[in-house]
Amino acid sequence: MCDENRNEAPFTEEQNQQMIDNGMIATVNAPHNIHCLSIIGQIEGHFLLPPQTKTTKYEHLIPALAAIEQDSTVEGLMVVLNTVGGDVEAGLAIAEMIAGMSKPSVSIVLGGGHSIGVPLAVSTDVSFIVPSATMTIHPVRTNGMVLGVPQTMTWFQKMQDRITRFVTENSRMKPQRFRELLMEKDELVMDIGTVLEGSEAVREGLIDHLGGISDAVQCLYSLIEKRKPAEPEKPAKSSAKGKKSDKAEKSAKSEKAEKPGKTTSHTKPLKPSAQKTAFVQLRPAETQSRRSALNSADWHGDR
User: DSSP strand E in 97-244: where?
Assistant: First the structure.
């Protein structure tokens, strides 16, 4: 039976289509406007993957990240990862884009952040991982024909150094420790490397915090609020005495503005000596001595 009083759909048609096409959505009706970017499946690079493979296409994410950086309505970026890895250059390109953004960013690893997913996980300002998630650290590999020459090994080493440098510069893990986990021989059956669970990734310094989506969202909110400029304080209301002094200052300025010898609608021009005498009579001797004493104390710092 249809409920006529039920709420409207949580997402608009445009947001639904955005999720279908790119796996991204901008939040509405929230304390802060954050953009959620999901990196799932295999990261597709320069070559198309089979249609039955779930992929994240870098030609979608790179322009999307550029648009997020320029959009003044988006206050922060949330990156949700559940990836097996993929193309190294495409993954590093996306990671560099995220690391170079000026807006606050937080990542959370759900399920897995393997291979090139490791640089993606550490590319944000703060990273989270759930306890059941895992991260695989292993050396670079390639598909297809490989030339058995020393230059090929040099190319592999340079590619691995780029990944190691990015991960260690954006996390608390030391390069030497990362290489030790990279070349571990007793962890994997058909490969070399290391699988880190959620708490192990935090303990090794690869990920910042162990937590869920609510922790990641609250962390992103706090980063956004810290970067907001402080609102200027409203001036305090002046007292009646202050208003009187303001009026006295205005009247004094108006008297000074009247030049000697100028005729107004209610005054006549005075002689120079008479003008000076009138001006002196406006300030009694007692007031003058009090003002001079105050100025002397201010000058010497004894107030």
Answer: 105-113, 126-129, 134-137, 194-197, 209-210
- Examine the residue annotation and report whether 222 is marked as an active-site residue of this protein: no
Closest CA to 116 of 143, 87, 142: 87
Quick: pLDDT tens for 235-279: 555 544 455 555 555 555 555 555 454 444 444 454 444 444 444
| Residue spans of alpha helices (H) in 71-196 | 88-99, 117-122, 150-169, 175-182
Catalytic residue among 115, 123, 127, 171: 115
DSSP β-bridge partners for residue 36: 25, 78
Does residue 46 carry a catalytic annotation?
Answer: no
Tokens describing residue 2: 């249809």
End-to-end CA distance of the chain: 81
User: What is the model's pTM?
Assistant: 0.69
pLDDT at 127 over 60: yes
List 105, 123, 138, 171, catalytic entry: 138
